Amino acid sequence: MRATIARRLGRLVTGVTISALAFTGCAGTSGAPNTSGATAGGSTSAGTSGGPKELLTLGVTADIEGWDPGVQPGYQGWAAEAVWDRLVYCDSTGGIEPAMLEDWEINDDRTAITGQLREGMEFTDGGAVDAASIEAAVKHMETTPQAPDYAGVVVTAESDSITLTWPEPQPIIANKACNLIISSPEQLESGEFTDQPVGSGPYVLDVGNTTRGSQYAFTKNPDHWNAAHYPFERLVVKVIESETAAVSALKTGQIDASLIPSNAVKEAETSNLDVLNFQGQTTRLIISDRTGKVEPALGDKRVRQAMNMVFDKEAMVQALYLGNAEPTAQVFRKGSDAYIEGLEDPYPFDVEKAKQLMSEAGYADGFELELPTMEGQNHETLMPYVTQQLAEINITVKQVPLSGANAISDLLSGKFPVVLWQLGNLGDSTYQIYVEATPEGWWDLQHEPDQFVGTRWDKLQTASDEEARTLEQEINRYLVDEAWFAPMVYMGTSFAFHSDKLSIPTQSDPEALTPKLRDFQ
Amino acid sequence: MINTFVWTLFRTLGVLLVVTAVVFALMYGNGEGIARSVVGFRSTDEGVMIKMVELGLDRPLLTQFWDWGTGAARGDLGRSFYTGQSVAEALSQRVPVTLSVIIPALLLTAVISVLLGVWAAVKGGVVDRIVQFLSIGGTAVPAFIVAIALVFAFAIQWRVFPATGYVKFGENPMMWLASIALPMIALLIGSVASAAQQFRTAVLDTLGRDYVRTLRARGVKEWQVIFQHVLRNAAAPGLTVVGLTLLNLLGGAVFIEQVFALPGIGQLAASSAKIFDVPMVMGTVLFTVLVVLIVNLATDLLITALNPKARKR
């Protein structure tokens, strides 16, 4: 998941179009919510799969970036899921499901995962999937952007039992195990990833019918350990970067399923398409300069709380998200361990109270605040409102457009005390805490250690499930009380599909952005 | 004539060198940023430096440009920083798609706009006003809006043409024709609207010349006056218009390829630029610059051939 966020960020800076985050304001308003962050609109036909089906054609809004297993996105990562398998799968809450490992065990100090490798698995070039393959995969990851997740990992084997051991305890060890893509060691060694990926996944790339940048064709791998789960004999992934084109292709039946922009949901539903709405993101101000290093005023909790109180979230849902969002007072996903059920918003919309807090903090005259803007973040819609509302407490927003190759590194450099972002809320809230609230997390932009969070994070390393839930909710409550963020609304992506051709009875994406390949039936 | 050709060729190569050098400097000037994009934001500074060295981005810009330029002269435009695909291979896949759309659009633009321009200029009155009205309308509406309207009508409502995608001519000629029809029409409307106005003005200008009056006074048939004499003299501005139209079509293809999900050069340029895949971007830039220069060169030479006055310097 960590890696997928990296890829998503990569796509963000590049636009691609560009990413889930380009499809803003699309959380579900119909259907019942579940912990996966997805709700169903229309008449989703769950579990309609029967015998084998001929063809599944999926539209992706960004081209894949080649066949190096170390740079595959989790977001719309169907091509990678087709050709490669993983040690284990993560479910929508970040829990582990069996994959290449039939069973698994994580040790008490969370430094190692041990599992039984399925017998008889082979890569599509005929090579056996064994401990050496796993070791090669880990070594390869150390040369990719995911290197920090696999630094120092040692792979040991005993019979068919494989153990991956990290040098330090890993609170998010499950996530790291799930992200490990297993590819042919020969191909990894050769470094040639240009044309034909060699994996052991449920499909094989059909090079003859593939046109790079346009469409990727796959045929079913009958030798896959779970081939029966994948009903489609052929898979085609078409690159359709334009939202308009994706909707047209869906309506004319050229593709069976694709992400669509929020403003096309009604159009899709009236065109006999089913729409799954995900709430995988939380729009918020990330007030990371809580020690006042860049902007001294933000070191005062009352200023951060005042910033929370100037946003009318209900009005935002209606006016900015056209009803396709939901107000929230916390950044964590509903149903996740850290989510506090029934939490009353401690910062209801109250400009007068906000002004009073600013005055008490000695900042009645406000200050100037630099907010970075980037393509694909819905800033063109959100920024005018945020600017206007912060001006109510005399905070003058100066927008700083970020673009070019340095955009993401500038964004995450910590030079901006506050960032407005539609950031993912993850099914695995432990991971979200790691990313957003620990000094190692890339979205804790100042990387300042915090004693309260730090002590609980340390305990999380070895906590039981119940203890972990308590600890995470304590952290969440602390983040709310200390106003580390100004959460506004839950929102996300919309995924349209032809229910007469396929069903999507499960939702396995911990990021709640799109269905996984194994969800299509 | 030979001197003109040599001089024009020399000038063209100079422009090619300057444009590619400037774009290269702009694209490759931030080697560290490019490397950071490639390795991901979680990479350490050391990792970024290693990638910079691996990609050759640590070398002086002039050295990089020399290597790129000499490679390009041999047909080696490098490889994508992300996918490892050869840039030349990518261009060889993408260019035919774009040309499939813009070449027919260009030819039809030339024919239709000449006919409309002559018709409007010769008939005048209501016909002229109608042509002008259509021209202004066609120019005013952006090609991508026309494209969306065409998709709605002919792909979604009536299902005559596919909404998206491209089929190679070699695979299925009829499907190829169907796949390029709407994108080509979307580009055609704007280009005809613009070019027809230009042709009308050129023909009107020529019709007012003394020799036309003389030809008519001598009893030469009107169709001969128009098609044998007037059109020939209006050819110079007409050729310039056609040359510019090709360049406009190339620019318009960037948007049209997005709307119709065509895997052409415009889509490649846009997607590569977004992820700072600079070798790929330089490949598309080189292609575009070459097209512009070749079109200008060809236009200059044709005009020179048609009009002896243009040979004087």
Largest sheet of chain A: 4 strands, antiparallel
Beta-strand content of chain B? under 5%
**Largest interface (CB < 8 Å):** A-B, 51 and 42 residues
Radius of gyration of chain B: 24 Å
Number of strands of chain A: 22
Number of H/I helices of chain B: 13
Low-confidence stretches of chain A: 1-35, 40-49
The level of helicity of chain A is 25-40%
What does this entry show, briefly?
The complex is a heterodimer of chains A (521) and B (313). With 521 residues, chain A is an alpha+beta fold. Chain A has helices at residues 2-14, 78-83, 131-141, 147-150, 173-178, 185-190, 243-251, 265-270, 301-308, 313-320, 351-360, 379-391, 407-411, 429-437, 451-460, 465-481; strands at residues 38-41, 53-60, 85-86, 88-90, 96-98, 101-106, 112-117, 154-158, 161-165, 181-182, 203-205, 215-220, 232-239, 257-260, 274-278, 281-287, 326-327, 367-373, 395-401, 418-424, 485-491, 494-497.
Can you characterise this structure?
The complex is a heterodimer of chains A (about 525) and B (about 325). Chain A contains 16 helices and 22 strands. With about 525 residues, chain A is α+β, with helices and mostly antiparallel strands. Chain A is globular. By secondary structure, chain B is mainly alpha-helical. Chain B has helices at about 1-30, 30-40, 45-55, 60-75, 85-125, 125-140, 145-155, 175-205, 210-215, 220-235, 235-260, 265-275, 280-305. The model of chain B has no long low-confidence stretch (mean pLDDT about 90). At the A-B interface, helix 1 and helix 7 of A face helix 2, helix 5, helix 7 and helix 12 of B.
